[in-house]
Amino acid sequence: xxxxxxxxxxxxxxDVPPLLSSYGEKGRILAGGTELLLxxxxxxxxxxxxxxxxxxxxxxxxxxxxxxxxxxxxxxxxHRALEKSDVVKERFPLIVEMERxxxxxxxxxxxxxxxxxxxxxxxxxxxxxxxxxGANLNVVGSDGERVIPLEEFLVGFYETVLREGEMLTExxxxxxxxxxxxxxxxxxxxxxxxxxxAALLTFGPKKEEIKDAVISLGCDNPPIRVREVEEYxxxxxxxxxxxxxxxxxELAAKKVDVKDDMHASEWYKREMVQVMxxxxxxxxxxxxxxx
Length: 291
Hints:
Layout: E1 6-8, H1 16-23, E2 27-30, H2 36-41, E3 49-52, E4 62-65, E5 70-74, H3 79-84, H4 86-91, H5 93-99, H6 105-110, H7 113-119, H8 125-132, E6 136-141, E7 144-149, H9 150-153, E8 154-156, E9 159-160, E10 167-174, E11 180-187, E12 195-203, E13 210-218, E14 224-225, H10 227-233, H11 238-243, H12 245-255, H13 266-290
Parallel strand pairs: 1-3, 2-3
Antiparallel strand pairs: 4-5, 5-10, 6-7, 6-10, 8-9, 11-12, 12-13, 13-14
Helix pairs in contact: 10-12, 12-13
């Protein structure tokens, strides 16, 4: 049952930071509300003030910036809108593939991309993939604007680097190189992934060498880049990498901080991380040779 709270509905971005600063820890932005309202209803979180930003124009826009070569996603864009966007389908099909796996249609219609990032769930499909894609976040606060790489945005479980009075306004995702391919895969027994892995590989001219690699994963720990795996496969011939995928999986399994819980044992999670990293690298290569 909800406790009483006030609801502000600003119509301009510049009006949000002062409200956040004045309320401090007693206030929170309301975007899609799929996680926030449920947590408040269950009594897990308590806020005296919610700031509904849905009336602010432009925060629900999706566009491709040709000059910058990047996709720009407003913080209020829903998962469903991202999944159905023609420009995303054309230029970032991997995002569409990921979005189709999120929860269920009700959640995708209501939940927002910006809200998902700010909630900072360690098992967020969106964060795992956008981390691999090198996303940057536009943030506005009382002191002005700043850009934060997604990799620096998360500082712990359900915790971000947002300062008091700051709000996320836009997500910017650079285009992938033309000679690259990627995959996002998840293992789950419900709506949230127990393990999620994104693998992006950039190949040489003849597809026989992996020039660059980005591997990100999420499990019990907040999503991370697995640079040990990236360095292991970079600069190697594809045949060499495919013949030693077990080693890549082992390196990834050593990086995650996992524990026994209701979903799976620590041992099982590590095994799944290893298997899924191996599969993701193999599948990314298969997709490249099909192009």
